Amino acid sequence: MNDKAKMGIAIGMGVTLVAALTALGIILYFFFTIDEATARNESMFSSSTASSISLTDDAALVAVYDGPALYLGGRAVKENFTVRVVSESEGGEGAVITDYTCPFLDDPDYRIDSENTVFKFTYGDLNTTLLVSCDDIRMYPFAPNYLTVKVDESAAQMADAIASGSISYTDAYADWGFTGDSQIAALSVYDLIPESSVIAEVGCGLDFLENNYDRALAAFINKKVIVMHFGINTLTTSRSGRDLFVAQYEKLITMLKRDIKGVRIIVDGIFPVADKIYYNQDRFAYINEANMQLLEMCLRLDVDYWTNNEFITYNQNYFAADGLHLNAAFYKEYWLVNLMKEMGSAN
User: What local confidence, expressed as pLDDT, does residue 281 receive?
Assistant: First the structure.
């Protein structure tokens, strides 16, 4: 065999080898590509709710918190987070998802324990974290509002309707129950809320509700929200006395939540007194402290807390002549409007 023939055979063998390697590469490429795509698709649908969102190779998870302040000892509301799947190749704002997982939001018993809390979100193979600053309630001059639900635009619309008179107080609060002392009794005294929805007594404390629990339960059994307002009549300068007050409050809230399934509880803080009588009794100096303790209780029990004290303090014209009670205008112009606006509807 001459040299020319040998060279032809070598070239032929080389071409065959290259072709074989190319074919093998193509086979391996499709094998791994299909396997990766299959794995990604299975992971995408591993969430509790199936999604039609296609995850591209450059897909990323983005989370934003747009709710009210978070507090140490409290929890965050899932509806106040917006989580999106975004992709540079597809552009736009991305797709909002709700079937993600987040350990802190999925666990109803979790309570925030750090001023800088990291929330971790997972959606299929995608992960992201979000650092959210959380406040110590003691940094506020008055115990702040605490919400366990998201307040949507319908609440503001209802509040506007109440303020304009296009809906009556009775109709607006048809699914609400109210219990407390004279500050709550005023709702029926001023003919704002029907007596059937108000379980209250002038000069009472929590013993009143405990002694009339069956009556309250019968009145509230079909209510979606119960507002509770107690404290001024039994307020004491003693820390042990306030601790007993909070313990009794906690006991009654627990009973109501047990006996009325799904009911939402709103604790309305103890109102301040007018400047003109503030120094008449030493115990009035402990109103803010008692409210802080009530808010701490609400954080533990996962119930809502509502405060009116800053507004009342700077609007002394709403006090009645005795400096302790509030006049009808307070309930009509402020309390029943802002309760809906700030704490949300019953729906």
Answer: 98
